[in-house]
Amino acid sequence: MTRDTCDDEDTSGRLGCAGRAFRPDPAREIRAIGAESRLRGRDVLEVGAGDGRLTLAIAALAHRVLAVDPDAAAIDAARAAARTARLRNVSFKVAPAQHLALGRRRFDVAVFSWSL
Questions:
Q1: What is the pLDDT of residues 1-57, one digit of tens each?
Q2: What strands, in cross-sheet order, belong to the sheet with 64-69?
Q3: Facing residues of 91 across strands?
Q4: pLDDT value of position 37
Q5: What single string gives the DSSP state of each residue in 21-69?
Q6: Of 3, 30, 64, 73, which one has the fewest beta carbons inside 10 Å?
Q7: Residue 3: which residues within 8 A CB-CB, separation 6 or more?
Q8: How far, in whole angstroms, is CA 8 from its chain's centroid?
Q9: pLDDT digit string, tens, across residues 63-83
Q10: Greater pLDDT, 87 or 36
Q11: What's the alpha-carbon Rg for the chain, to the nearest Å?
């Protein structure tokens, strides 16, 4: 599956195929919430990354991104999208937020978009 196609077999993302129509363009979403300056050059934790829809736009601005989601299939799709986009500043972790073990790692910004 690519980011531009959708079929009944798609299970990536919390809203599924039909829900994509409700989610705004990632770059537009970042601009709308005024987050560009908050993300630029920062270390970002994205909770509820899903299929990486917003992750790729965040990575274009951020220094580093750790994108987490409990859905392994969604994280697989996000990893593939990041590889296709040749992003090297993104890492992914399959885990629910409440069980995320980060040790001493610190972040400048945490993003929870479409996570609830």
A1: 344 455 444 444 455 554 555 666 777 777 766 677 788 999 999 999 999 989 999
A2: 90-94, 64-69, 43-47, 109-111
A3: 66
A4: 77
A5: GGSPPHHHHHHHTT-HHHHTT-EEEEES-TTSTTHHHHHHH-SEEEEEE
A6: 73
A7: 51, 53, 81
A8: 22
A9: 999 999 999 999 999 999 999
A10: 87
A11: 13
When pLDDT is averaged across residues 90-116 and rounded to a whole number, the result is 87
Structure tokens at 13: 């993302």
pTM value?
0.75
Identify the H or E element spanning 79: helix 72-84
Instruction: Decide if 55 contacts 83 (C-beta within 8 A).
Output: no
Closest C-alpha among 112, 30, 31 to residue 68: 112
Better-scored residue on pLDDT, 11 or 101:
101
What three-state secondary structure class fits 111?
Answer: strand
Given a contact cutoff of 8 angstroms between Cβ atoms, the answer to whether 79 and 92 are in contact is yes
Distance of alpha carbon 70 from alpha carbon 88, whole angstroms:
22
